[in-house]
């Protein structure tokens, strides 16, 4: 993604400061929805999966049949080509040499399925790996290297602070400023958000798992790990420009797939003693070793309203033997909130009103 040119050191005036806080608030609202937190150990009178989904609906609107977050997206299918390099660290069949089918979904954060692709700079990539032994691995990743919040109360308070002002349709900058002042752990995410730009392609993004997990080997040894996808043979796309329409990401994906498969390397960063496994707001040191576990290959895309990803709940706690959850409380939270969202949208039935992504046409692939 293009970087913002360096600015001079003059302080921003009050109006500029409020505007920037409003923009960051909108980004946090959209990205935060990706990790709706509700820990099972909390008093259900205070915080439940349904209350989390309710506040997401309040902030994004209710769109029957759609996911309550990452509502706008497309299905993709392909396979994972394991390098075998991670198999010594994990007994999971997906890491053994060979190919594993995948069903994925590329999407925007947020609950509005009709949002312009340029509305937020974050893109997401969810994957379901289906091993021959019947085990599944589901993971949801985002194109930001760090998350904004780590605790249930902070997340819920942020959702309340980010509720759109009826007069402007955007979060109140003063309310967001007060929230950020009370939560210094958001600093790393806010620093990223200030320079982030919405790119014109899903294919050129890196996607980060953000939460920590454990790889478990044949002896039961647990290795802390965070994973990410890094694009292969894809130069960085330009930032979205005014000439891009509201659904340019789908058009770009179609054009690229017409030329051949899209590929990402699955990179496993290995944590060391003292690296936090329970806090998604803190990155691990850059010098931690990385294992190239293999390549995710996407060969085809199709609309989400009738594609193979439609009925998949990308619950990140659905794991095969050989991968285990960490003590990051966001994992149980995401599982619970995703289940509540899944129950609502499946009860409502198929999305009402075909959106632009339903008009997917698979072009003839170049020979």
CATH class: Mainly Beta
The average pLDDT is: 85
Stated plainly, the CATH topology is called Catalase HpII,  Chain A, domain 1
- The secondary-structure element order is HHEEEEHHHEEEHEEEH
Low-pLDDT sequence parts: 1-19, 26-44, 354-358, 363-367
For the biggest sheet, the summary is: 10 strands, antiparallel
Q: Mind telling me the C-alpha Rg?
A: 20 Å
Helix content: 25-40%
Strand content: 15-25%
Output the CATH homologous superfamily.
Catalase core domain
Counting DSSP H or I runs of 4 or more residues, the number of helices is: 7
The overall number of domains is: 1
Based on CA inertia axes, which overall geometry fits? Answer: globular
Counting helices, strands and paired strands, the structural category is alpha+beta
**Corresponding CATH architecture:** Beta Barrel
How many runs of DSSP E, i.e. beta strands? 10
Distance between the termini: 30 Å
